[in-house]
Each structure stands twice: as structure tokens, then as C-alpha cells.
């Protein structure tokens, strides 16, 4: 079985070390939850790529099914699903997100 | 007719036997925003403290709660902010 949306997602999360599925883009997030994740990644100095689910209904449904996760945003690091806004926020606050980036070899600025 | 908040609370209580459960309807804060509906009941924040979360990852905890609320997502639930802790974690964090 080959689902073209799943194939697209699979290749995006394999190509980009940090991939964020969100509403809007990093410059103009169109949802507060997406905006918060962009803000955290930017604050950490992590390079990331985004895909705007609002521009593609198939992607919007597909990513939910692919990740088995019903809401947007969704963050992937080195092909692995990290979570949505709540999990990313909690992990940022506890320092675990920086640890994860270090473990995965993703460059980021050391916590101040 | 029960509200969505009541149904969320009932589903979580039955499955996870929480020692602490808070369900807040944040829909009014998101009125007019995409995903909001005229009747509200679209955006919620939920705190669950349950021993059932012990030894499971953050993603697994959220997936367990999402699975309980499948029908609500299908019926217009748009955003669900989850704080999911074991009693031990909550005692430490709530200070």
C-alpha cells in the first residue's frame, strides 16, 4: 500500500533534521499553538523546516493519520515524532528539548 | 444535554481513575479563530493526574487520552491542551 501523502511526509522527515507541520509558516504562524513551537525553536537557535497544513487538505489529514495524532502542530526531529505544542513546551521548560537536540546531533544554542 | 466538557471528564474518569482532573473550556478565547464554532465547545485545556501514566512516555500519555476522545474530535473538538502527570510528578511540579 502506498499513500502519496505518507510518502511525502516520510521523505520530508528524513530530509529535514527538524521538521514542523504547522498552520501558516515560521514568519506568519496562523495559530497560537503553532506560533509557540516556532518561537521555542527560534529561541533555541534550531534550524528547522516547516510545512503549512492549511495549504494542503490532504497533508492536513494525512499528517494526523501518519503520526496517530489528532492536532497540529506536530514536531519531528531526525524522523522521530516528538509531540505537539504541549509536549514541546514542557520539554523546552525542563531542558529535555535541548538534550534531545544534542543527542540527535542538531545544532542549537546552549541554554543561557 | 451534556456539554463536551462533561463528556471529556466522564471518559477520562472512567478510563484513568484520575486523582485530579480539571477540564477548562477555552473556546471563548478562540472565538472567531479558525476551528472555532458559533456554539463554542471547540478548545479545551485538560489536566489529568493519574497513576495510570507511570512508566509511559509523554507521547504515549497523550495518545491514550486522544484515543478516549476520538468521538469528540470527530464531532468538532478542535484543540486540546493536555497536562498529563503521575501523582508523584504532580506533587513535585505543583510544589
Element pattern of chain B in H and E? HEEHHEH
Name of the top-level CATH class of chain B: Alpha Beta
| C-alpha geometry of chain B | elongated
| Beta fraction of chain A | 15-25%
State Rg of chain B: 14 Å
Q: Looking at this structure, what is the CATH superfamily of chain B?
A: BolA-like
Structural class per helix/strand content of chain A? alpha+beta
Number of helices of chain A: 5
- Spans of chain B of 5+ residues with little confidence (pLDDT < 50)? none
Number of domains of chain B: 1
Beta-strand level of the residues of chain B, as a percent range?
Answer: 15-25%
* Envelope shape of chain A: globular
Q: The CATH topology of chain A, please?
A: Glutaredoxin
Largest sheet of chain A: 4 strands, mixed
Oligomeric description of these chains: heterodimer
The span between the termini of chain B is 38 Å
CATH superfamily membership of chain A, which one? Glutaredoxin
Q: Helix/strand-derived class of chain B?
A: alpha+beta
Largest interface: A-B, 18 and 14 residues
Secondary-structure element order of chain A, N to C: HEHEHEEHH
List the keywords:
heterodimer; A: 112 residues; alpha+beta; Glutaredoxin; 4-stranded mixed sheet; 5 helices; 4 strands; 49% helix; B: 95 residues; GMP Synthetase, Chain A, domain 3; 3-stranded mixed sheet; 4 helices; 3 strands; elongated
Protein described:
The complex is a heterodimer of chains A (about 110) and B (about 100). With about 110 residues, chain A is an alpha+beta fold. Chain A has helices spanning about 5-15, 30-45, 55-65, 85-95, 95-105; strands spanning about 20, 50, 75, 80-85. In chain A, strands 2-1-3-4 form a 4-stranded mixed sheet, with helices on both faces. Chain A is globular and about 40 Å long. Chain B is an alpha+beta fold and about 100 residues long. The longest helix of chain B has 13 residues, at about 5-15. The radius of gyration of chain B is 14 Å and the shape is elongated. A 3-stranded mixed sheet of chain B has the order 1-2-3. Helices cover about 40% and strands about 20% of the residues of chain B. Chain B has helices spanning about 5-15, 60-70, 70-75, 85-95; strands spanning about 20-25, 45-50, 80-85. The mean pLDDT of chain B is about 90. The chains are: A alpha+beta (about 110), B alpha+beta (about 100).
Amino acid at each position: 500500500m502506498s499513500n502519496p501523502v505518507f510518502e511525502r511526509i516520510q521523505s520530508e522527515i528524513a530530509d529535514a533534521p527538524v521538521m514542523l507541520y504547522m498552520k501558516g509558516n515560521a514568519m506568519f504562524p496562523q495559530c497560537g499553538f503553532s506560533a509557540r513551537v516556532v518561537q521555542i525553536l527560534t529561541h533555541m537557535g534550531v534550524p528547522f523546516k516547516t510545512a503549512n497544513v492549511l495549504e494542503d487538505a490532504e497533508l492536513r489529514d494525512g499528517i494526523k493519520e501518519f503520526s496517530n495524532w489528532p492536532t497540529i502542530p506536530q514536531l519531528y526531529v531526525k524522523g522521530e515524532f516528538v509531540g505537539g505544542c504541549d509536549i514541546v513546551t514542557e520539554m523546552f521548560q525542563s531542558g529535555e528539548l535541548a538534550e534531545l537536540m544534542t543527542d540527535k546531533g542538531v545544532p542549537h544554542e546552549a541554554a543561557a | 444535554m451534556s456539554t463536551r466538557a462533561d463528556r471529556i471528564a466522564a471518559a477520562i474518569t472512567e478510563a484513568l481513575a484520575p486523582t485530579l482532573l480539571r477540564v477548562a473550556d477555552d473556546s471563548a478565547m478562540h472565538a472567531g479563530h479558525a476551528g472555532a464554532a458559533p456554539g463554542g465547545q471547540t478548545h479545551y485545556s485538560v489536566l489529568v493526574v493519574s497513576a495510570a501514566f507511570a512508566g509511559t512516555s509523554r507521547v504515549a500519555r497523550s495518545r491514550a487520552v486522544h484515543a478516549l476522545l476520538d468521538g469528540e474530535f470527530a464531532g468538532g473538538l478542535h484543540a486540546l491542551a493536555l497536562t498529563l502527570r503521575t501523582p508523584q510528578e504532580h506533587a513535585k511540579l505543583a510544589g
